[in-house]
Amino acid sequence: MRALIFTEGGSQIGLGHISRCCSLYDELEGRGIEAEFIINGDKEKFEIIEKKKNMVVNWLSKDFLTNYIKHNDFCIVDSYLAREEIYQVISSLAKKALFIDDIGRIKYPKGIVVNPSLGTKSIKYSNVDTNCYLLGAKYIILRSPFVQVERQEIKSQVKEVLITLGGSDIHNLTPVILNELSSKFSEVIFNVVIGNSFDNIEEIKSFSSKNIIFHENVTAEEMKSIMLSSDFAITAAGQTIYELIATQTPFIPIKVIENQHFNILALKELNLVDVALEYNDPFFKEKLICEIENIVRVSNRINLTEKYERVIDGLGSKRIIDALLSEEAKEENYFLRKAKSEDVFDVFQLSNEDYVRKYSLNIDKIEWEDHKVWFKNILKSNNHVFYVITDHTDQFLGQLRYKIENDSATISISLFKSITGKGLSKLLVKKSMELIRNERNEIRNIIAYVSNDNVASKKLFESVGFLLRENDSGILKYNYSIS
């Protein structure tokens, strides 16, 4: 048994794909599975994987794939270049295929589709009935040194700043930033990370100053150390933002390529940043200075690090490989379990989906800070029973809650769209009613409040046996009596 990782990297592409796939490689290797990188790139050697089995070749051809993939191979594809027909070839040849996607780029063939990012809600996927989808923060891929890291302190004065523009700095931003900042903030040390695909190394190194330290071709462990020593970072809005969140390092993101668009949307929606810069903004320098003036304030940096807590738990690679190696990637079994503190972010994302808020009694979007307080109180409350819905990989798929008052319990349910329309709601409500009756035998009535416009919910509760009792200005009250 072996696992082939098809990806790309180079001077114009960067190393983001290779970097995140390293974690999947390590997870596979740790389970005793032979793994190999197959890289389409313009280099003969990549230092980032020099100790891993790899081949640099243009794999975007049916002939190569047909000759190289064996029928019992697991295949992982992380690409912005491969055409849909190439994915179809890999899917047909492999024992099982897993596709990493950030932007809903194509219609994926049979397999597992993973979107390992914060910004998944705006992306629409097809083939929901034939593919397994692993989406969101639970599947963010971190390199092993960044798992469960704790920052020791937030310094009152900024002493070090990290500048990292990805593996290639395709827009030559590093010299622009250094020219703007190194003399203006002469007492601050600038840790400048130079990727091994930079074409502008000599120009960058021409900035000879005692407050600039260059770090070339750093390992993951070295990058973690630099992040922890830096008080904030100026970064491209790619994979590095997740490592910064994991190390609780405040950062100013710069969108340097279009596929970072959804990352930026998610950062703003979660209130993890106020402003994201764009490399081609004519006022880039002025906006950068403005953001630096904000982030140097210790209260702002403390606020940011607190927001980063629990966003990423670092178990994404494990969950992804669990799904790849399971006997069936798509199970028809769904489970109810008690909510845990780790579910806070998943519940937040689902609760803020437009289709969920549309039929809620309070239609306003929920703020992250308010949600964290609410969630913590709900878990501790004896007047609430909170279940989450998962599949066999423990992927969060929905929530089902009961608020208990005397001998009555008010039910609320919301599911991700990936499992709606399959008749699951009825089964899950029935299962939850069995659980709540066993757990709280004082309950005699279960109540559901439904908007009159929410046709699906009305049909759901009526099919389970709820009876309509009241209509208060378009809010329907359903009741289920327990004998």
UniProtKB/TrEMBL annotation:
Q: Identify the residues that the record assigns to the N-acetyltransferase domain, covering every copy.
A: 334-483
EC numbers on record: 3.6.1.57
Q: Which GO terms describe its molecular function?
A: hydrolase activity
> Is Hydrolase there in the keyword field?
yes
Its top-level enzyme class, in one word, is hydrolase
State the PROSITE patterns in the record. Answer: GNAT
Which of UniProt's keywords are assigned here? Hydrolase
Q: Which Gene3D superfamilies match?
A: 3.40.50.11190, 3.40.630.30, Glycogen Phosphorylase B
**Superkingdom in the source lineage:** Bacteria
- Per its UniProt record, what InterPro entries does this chain match? Acyl_CoA_acyltransferase, GNAT_dom, PseG
Concerning NCBIfam families, the annotation shows: PseG (TIGR03590)
This one is known as UDP-2,4-diacetamido-2,4, 6-trideoxy-beta-L-altropyranose hydrolase
* Organism phylogeny: Bacteria, Bacillati, Bacillota, Bacilli, Lactobacillales
